[in-house]
Specification:
The chain is 11% helix and 50% strand. It is mainly β.
Length: 159
């Protein structure tokens, strides 16, 4: 019986030591958040202000990422706030690299309306780097204006 208890104790300590190696994927939050606001003003009538902000959550192991957006719409008259609405969520995007690894990233986005926004509400670029090799991939996504996004990535060459 003592051997069983000793074995279970050693197994438990071993599993505890191995737990960090079997941890979940690492996620990084974009440090490049933006906020854009618009408002509709009419003297003596209701005023509405709408603000949107976004960020990206990047899986540094798989290179999958999520685009997250939050919005707030506030309606008021001259005396009080009448209505406040919020909305938001995250949308999963495809992997940038085909294999798992240790990746870093950066992202930026055009904000509507914008002269860079030819067909729709804007686009974004995301850069990802393999932290264990000299490998960088740049991707640009824009709206096609036909209800779908067009996204292309390019591996950088080093000279």
């Amino acid at each position: 019986m003592g051997h069983v208890i000793k074995f279970c104790w050693i197994a438990g300590v071993s599993l505890t030591a191995l737990a960090p190696a079997a941890r979940a994927d690492d996620f990084q939050l974009s440090h490049n958040q933006r906020i854009s606001c618009s408002r509709g003003l009419a003297p003596g009538k209701l005023n509405t202000a709408t603000c949107k902000s976004y960020t990206y959550l990047f899986n540094s192991k798989t290179s999958e990422y999520f685009r997250c957006q939050v919005s707030l719409a506030l309606t008021r008259d001259n005396k009080e706030v009448i209505n406040v609405q919020t909305d938001g969520g995250c949308t999963k995007k495809p992997r940038i690299f085909e294999t798992d690894g240790k990746y870093d990233f950066d992202v930026t986005e055009t904000e509507p309306p914008n002269t860079n926004s030819f067909f729709g509400p804007g686009g974004y670029s995301i850069w990802a780097a393999d932290m264990a090799a000299q490998k960088i991939r740049g991707c640009i996504t824009i709206s096609s204006g036909l209800g779908s996004d067009i996204s292309k990535c390019l591996d950088m060459t080093f000279q």
